User: What shape does this take?
Amino acid sequence: EAMLALQGRNPVVQPLICNFHCCLKYCQTLKVHGVYLHLPPAYITSRVLNTIKPEKDVDGISDLNMGRLVRGDLSKGFVPPIASAVLDLLEKHGIHSDICSCNEISRAQTPKPVDQLAEEIGLLPEELEAYGRSKAKVRLSLLDRLHKQPDGKYVLVAGITPTPLGEGKSTVTIGLVQALSAHLKLNSFACLRQPSQGPTFGVKGGAAGGGYAQVIPMEEFNLHLTGDIHAITAANNLVAAAIDARMLHEATQSDKALFNRLVPSVNGVRRFSPIQISRLCRLGINKIDPASLTPQEVSTFVRLDLDPSKITWQRVVDTNDRFLRKITVGQASTEKGQIRETGFDIAVASEIMAILALADSLVDMKNRLARMVVGTSRSGQPVTAEDLGVSGALAVLMKDAIKPTLMQTLEGTPVFVHAGPFANIAHGNSSVLADKLALKLVGCDGFVVTEAGFGADIGMEKFFNIKCRASGLRPNVVVLVATVRALKMHGGGPNVSAGAPLPKEYIDENLSLVAGGCRSNLRKQIQIAQLFGVPVVVALNVFKTDTQAEIDLVCEIAKECGASNAVPCHHWSQGGRGSLELAQAVNEAASRPSHFKFLYNIEMPIVEKIRTIAQQVYGADDIELSPEAKAKIDYYNQQGYGSLPICMAKTHLSLSHMPDKKGVPTGFVLPIRDVRASIGAGFIFPLVGTMSTMPGLPTRPCFYDIDLDPVTEEITGLF
Amino acid sequence: EAMLALQGRNPVVQPLICNFHCCLKYCQTLKVHGVYLHLPPAYITSRVLNTIKPEKDVDGISDLNMGRLVRGDLSKGFVPPIASAVLDLLEKHGIHSDICSCNEISRAQTPKPVDQLAEEIGLLPEELEAYGRSKAKVRLSLLDRLHKQPDGKYVLVAGITPTPLGEGKSTVTIGLVQALSAHLKLNSFACLRQPSQGPTFGVKGGAAGGGYAQVIPMEEFNLHLTGDIHAITAANNLVAAAIDARMLHEATQSDKALFNRLVPSVNGVRRFSPIQISRLCRLGINKIDPASLTPQEVSTFVRLDLDPSKITWQRVVDTNDRFLRKITVGQASTEKGQIRETGFDIAVASEIMAILALADSLVDMKNRLARMVVGTSRSGQPVTAEDLGVSGALAVLMKDAIKPTLMQTLEGTPVFVHAGPFANIAHGNSSVLADKLALKLVGCDGFVVTEAGFGADIGMEKFFNIKCRASGLRPNVVVLVATVRALKMHGGGPNVSAGAPLPKEYIDENLSLVAGGCRSNLRKQIQIAQLFGVPVVVALNVFKTDTQAEIDLVCEIAKECGASNAVPCHHWSQGGRGSLELAQAVNEAASRPSHFKFLYNIEMPIVEKIRTIAQQVYGADDIELSPEAKAKIDYYNQQGYGSLPICMAKTHLSLSHMPDKKGVPTGFVLPIRDVRASIGAGFIFPLVGTMSTMPGLPTRPCFYDIDLDPVTEEITGLF
Assistant: This one.
C-alpha cells in the first residue's frame, strides 16, 4: 500500500496532512519520526513526488506515475476487508437459514465506516458528505477530477418477463459485484435505485437485496436514505401549489393588479426577476424595463391562462395511498369555488424523479426542471415550471439530491444508490450520474453493474434507447436473470400469486415446462438484447427447489439461443462466493467486442418509433392508435417535441399488452390508448392500457410486522 | 488546550488513536517522536491518565480530575474561534449594509466543520452523526453519559403581541447566545425550531435569524436540514393511507375474510403480531391463540368500524397549498364509491410534530405515537394508530428525527435545531430533548436560550403549562422581545401590513404612541410572565428609525412595569457585541431566585383550566362554550382525557380573540367554538375562532427570487 515518510516541516506535504488528517495512520515503527501518511491518489502529483526523496521505508511511490498509482490504489481499495466476516456469517447460519433472516444477516455484519470505504475507493475527504456513519453523498466535482480516467466496463442486469414473485435482479446485481470485488479482486461498483417507501410499508417490503447479497445497513437503504425522494416530493408539490394558486390569483385579479404584484415596486423601482425575463424572451417580448410594456404585453406576461382541464401535473406522496388516485381540490370557501379534479401519484412517478435519473450535471438538471410542461394554456401553448417562476426554487430543493449516495454490500464493496424512477410511466433505471462516477472510480479494468426495472423488453429497452442516449455511455454486457420457477410459468405452468402456496409444478422437477420457458420467453429476451449488439450472459438465480437437471437444461438451452454464456448463481445462500461463475462469465464476455447500436433513429416520426419498438421488441404485428393518441402526437410534433425518444408505458407481466399472455405472444396488434410527454425528462410516453401510478395498501400491509425496539434501537420486519 | 504525548505502542492509548484519528494533530515540534493527540474529555479516564507519565511537554492533564476536565473543556470549547471573523465582516460591510444582504453575510462566514464544533462542546465522536459538513444529529445516549452533570440556566425568549411584521424573537435569541458565548465567555446554547418549507417558499422566507445574528449555513437551516419534517410527513401520511384503506377493506370483506388476511396462516400457523396483541388487550380479549377467538371476538378484533364523519386525522404536506384545505378523496372507481371529505394541513401542524417536540425519549415517543387517536368508531370508541397496526412503523420512520440537529451561529457558537410544532393549534415550542441535552452540555454556569412562538400570552403560556410539565424543567429567566414599531401600534398607531410602506408614525419619533404601547401590551405581557414567578428582562430590538428618546422611554417604563431590567439590542447590525448589555442583564436576572409555579392544577376540570387561561392570561371576563364544545368536553372527560393540559388555538395578533384589538383589550367574553384533543401529544385544544392549518401562496411567492447558480452552487433569495 502506498505510504510516504514525511518530514514535519515539509512545505508541500504539510498542507496535505491538514487536508487529510483523517487519513493519518499512527506510526507503528518509531524508527523514523514523523508519521506515515496514506495519500489519496490525486494528491500524488509530480510536485509532491519531487519533494519526497525515495527512501527504503517508502514503498511503491517513487517509481509510480500518477495514472498507475490511481489504479493501484483503487485495486487496493477494493480489497474487501470484511469479506471473511461474511464467510464467518455463513458458518454461523449455515446455508438457507437466510430464507427467514435477511434482517438478522444484515444486522450480524458491521458496515465499514463510510469514510473508510470512501478512502478505499479513492475519494478525497472533501468529495464526501457523510449522512450518519454508513452512508454519504458524493460530490460531482469528482467527475472533473477524474475526467481523464478511462471508464470501466459497463454491465446491465435485466430480466426475463417477471412473474408476480420477482426473479431477483437486485440480488444478482449485488451478488455479482460481491464476487467481482471480494473474490475476483476486480474493482467493481453496483448502481442501484432508491426504493420507494410506498411498497416498503405496503406489499413488497424492502429492496436491499436478500440473503447474503444485500446492501447494508438495509434499514438505512429502505428508509429515508439521504432524503432524495423527500426532496423530489417537496419540489413536485411546490409546482402543484404554484399552479392552483396562480389560477386562483389570475381568476380574481385584473392585469394591472397582477402586474403590480408580480413586478412590485421596491423603493420606487420595478424590476423583472431573471426568471421573469426568461419568460418574456419566450414570449418574444425583448424588454427589460417593466414600464415599457404595452397593456397587451402586460396581459400576455401576467396571464399563464392555464386551462384547468389540461393540467397534466399531479401532486405526489411517497406512500401507497389509493384514496388519492382521484380527488377534488379547492373545496374550501377561501378558494372561491375554483374546484377541480386531480390526483396524487407515488413520488417515484414524478417527472422530477425521471429528471434526477437522466441529468448529467447540475446545469442540465436545472434546465430540465425549467422545461417541465405542467399544462396547456387556453390558447394551446405549453406552460412550463419556469413560466410559474418556480424553477430556481426547484433547483435549490434538488441541489443535494443530485449527489449519489455511497453505501456498501454485505461484503464491504461499494454501491451507489441514486434515483428510482417508476418503471411503467418512466424509464425505471438508476441515475446517469451514479453510473458515470462509478465508471471513473473503478478504472478501465473495473466493472460497474447497473440494474434496469421489469423485464428486458421494458427496462433494458429503455436503458439503451433513453438512458444511454442521455449519458452517451455504451454497455459491454447484458446479464439476463431467470429463475426455473418463472421459466416454468412461461413454459405453460399454472398462474401463481404472491402469498398463495406454490402449485407443485413449481416445486417438483418438470423439465418440459422448463424447456418450454427457455425456448419461448428466454430466447426472445436474449434476441432483444442482441438487437442492440450487446453480448448476453444468462444468470440463473437458483432456488432450493431447483434440481440439477433443471439447472443444466436452462444453461444448455440458453447457450443454444445465443447467450455467450449461462451459469447458475447461489449468491442468496453463499454471497459473492456463490456468484463466482457469473463473475468469470461476465469478465470473459466483457472482453469481447460489443457492437452497440440504438434500435431507432431519434429523428424518425413518433409513430414510427413506437411501431419499431412494438414490432421488434414486443413481437406485435402492428400498432393501433386511438384518435386521442393521434391528436396528441400531432400536437407534440407541432410543439417541436417530435425527436424525443419513446418511453412505453406497458404491463411488465407479458411481452404483449395482455398480462396473462406468457411465453412469446404473437399475432397481436398493440393498442396505443393515449400519448403523454415528459418534456423536462425528455421523452414521449405512449400508454398501452391503464397504468396505475399510485399503489394501494392491502388488508394487512407490511407495517404490521415492522417495529422498533426503543431500547436497542433494533428494527424488525423490514425486508 | 489539553494535549498528550503518546508512545506508539501504549496498549491503552493506541485504541484511542484509532477511535480519534480525526482528532490527530500533526506534531509540529519534532523534539518528541509520536504525535500529539487531543483527546475528548470523556476519554481522559483515570486508566488513561495512569498510563501517561506527566512530562514537561504535557500541559494541563496530570493534575486534572475528570470532572474538572469536562468543565474546563466545555468552557474552552465555547470560546468561539471565528468571532473575530464576524468583526472583520462588520468592518467589510459596515453597519446596516446587512439589511439587504443576510445572504451575503451568511456566505461570507465559513462555518466550523461540525465535528470540530462537536468536539469543542464536549461531544464524543460516536455521539455525532454528521449530515454533510455543517450539521449533525446528536445521539440521545449523551443524556445517559451526562446524567450526573448539573443543568445550566434556562432562558425563554418570548415576545409582546406581534404585529404582522414580526418583532425578531429569533434574532434576539441568536444575538443573545452570541453575546453570552463569544463575548462574555459563558457556555451557551440556542435551541431553535426547524422552519417549515411552506413559509420559506411562500411569504415569510427563511427563519435563520438575520443580519449579524444568524444560524449558518442559513441555506441548510432553511431547506431539508436533516429531514425531520420529511420524516413527519411520511409518518403522518402513512397513518392517513392506513385509515382509508382499512375502511375500504372493512366495507368490502366479511369478518372471516378480514381475519384470514389480518392473521394469515404462514406454513399452516396463525399468529397475532405484537401490535395485534396490544389491541386485543385493549379490547379485553386476553387470548393469544387466534383459533380460540369466538366469532363475536373475531368481529370486534377485525372491525375498527371507523365513523367516516368522525375521522380527525388529516394528511399533510410541507408546502403552502391552499387548494388542499378541503378536498374529496376516493373518487377513483377502484375505491368503490367510498368517497369522503377531508383535507391537508401543513406538515408542522401534524400531531406527530407536537409529539416530537414533547417526547423525552425514544420509548416515550413510541408510546405517544401508538396512543394517537385518529377518529371514533360508530359505537363512539376512540381508534388509535396502534389499532391500525401502524405504530411500530411510525417509530421506525421517526427513529432519526428524534435526534436534535447541531448547527452554529455566525460567531461559531452551538445551536440545536429540533422540531417546530405549529404555534396556533399546537404548542409552538422547540423540543424538550434539545433543551435537555443543551442544559447538560453547558453545565451549571452556562445558559440555554430557547424560543416560544407568537406572543407571551400564547407561546410562553404553552411553554410553561405544557412543555415544562412534559420536561420537568424549570425556567430561570424570560426575555420579552419588543420593538418600538410594535409598541407604537399597541399605543394606537395605524395598521400596517407586510409589503405596504410604513405609515410615518412608525418612522418618525412619537413618544406618546410608544408610551401607550408600553403601558398597555408590554405591561400586560410582563405581568403574564410574573404569574409564573419568573423574572423578566425586556429586550428592545432596535431599528434604524428608533430615536434615543424612544429607546430610553421603553426601557424606563418597562422597569416601572416590573421588568427586572430592560435594554436595547443591536445584534442585527453588530452581532453578539450588540447584545452584550442583554447578556449581562440575563446573567444578572438568572442569579436571582426564580419561584416558578404552574398557572393551573392539571386535575382541574377542563372548563376551569380554559377559564383560568382566558381570565388570567388574556384578560377576558369569562368564556362562552358552544354546544359542540360542551359535548366534546363531556366526551373527553368520559374517555379519561380530563386531566390533560390545555393548548389554546387563538389568534396571535391580539390578547383577545379579535385580531384587530391591540394593546390590552378588556370587557370581552372568549368564545370557545369547538374543542379537540391530541392524545398522543397529550393536550386538549380549544378552538377560539377559526385557525388556518394550511397557509396559501401569494400572487408573487418568495420562490420568484430563489435561485441556484449551477456552477458556483451559490443560492440566492433565501432570507
Q: What stands out?
A: The longest helix of chain B spans residues 228-252. The radius of gyration of chain B is 27 Å.
